[in-house]
TrEMBL record:
Pfam families: Dioxygenase_C
Region Disordered: start-end pairs: 1-24
Family assignment from sequence similarity: Belongs to the intradiol ring-cleavage dioxygenase family.
Domain named Intradiol ring-cleavage dioxygenases: residues: 52-189
Protein name: Protocatechuate 3,4-dioxygenase subunit alpha
Length: 203
């Protein structure tokens, strides 16, 4: 009979020295369709909003095949570079700005948000913070999609400037002819997207 490892009330496991370490993650797919997607979750603003754009792309697996059951979340500043509002709110009333959205991929592995182009925060390069959930991922993945166009800001960005050219390219969205921003996410393999780790979110 095994003895359960001690935990505190937050659900973190205490190791032999008494330090708290994060508990393991748990894959969300292919079951997340039961509760996580919600109506108009992909609309940070209504499509008719002045300045509204489409932020979209495809999620690919290590073999280069589209992932039909992933979940993509974005968090962003508003067009003026302000980070505010009730993060994570489900309100989609056309007036409440949360800067947060969630979108399940289609059978073709595509996702699409209606939003505004984020402005620069504190003069730094503007970006979308992107989170990916998918079957087989025990922990969600974090990355960034930088807005193209301001070459000086992109070159000065602390994260981008520490990467080689191929890795940098994986973090910069592409401006399409219709003005939309395309950001393809490659989970593994050639041209794999650069993923980030944050304190308390490491596997």
């Amino acid at each position: 009979m095994t003895t359960p490892e001690p935990t505190d009330r937050s659900g973190e496991i205490a190791n032999a020295s008494g330090d708290l370490v994060p508990t393991p993650g748990q894959t969300v797919g292919p079951f997340f369709g039961f509760a996580l997607p919600y109506e108009r979750g992909h609309e940070l603003v209504p499509p008719t909003t002045p300045g509204a754009i489409r932020f979209h792309g495809t999620v690919y697996d290590g073999a280069g095949d589209p992932v039909p059951d992933a979940l993509v979340e974005i968090t962003q500043a508003d067009a003026d570079g302000r980070v505010h509002g009730a993060e994570g709110t489900l309100a989609r009333d056309g007036m409440t700005w949360s800067g947060w959205g969630r979108c399940a991929t289609t059978r073709a592995g595509t996702y699409s948000f209606t939003t505004v182009e984020p402005g620069a925060v504190d003069g730094r390069a503007a970006f979308f913070a992107v989170t990916v959930f998918a079957r087989g991922l025990l922990n969600r993945l974090f990355t960034r999609a930088y807005v193209p166009g301001d070459d000086a800001a992109l070159a000065a960005d602390p994260l981008l400037s520490g990467l080689d050219e191929v890795a940098r390219r994986s973090l910069v969205a592409v401006r399409e002819d219709d003005g939309s921003l395309r950001f393809d996410i490659r989970l593994q393999g050639e041209d794999e997207t650069v993923f980030l780790t944050y304190p308390r979110h490491e596997p």
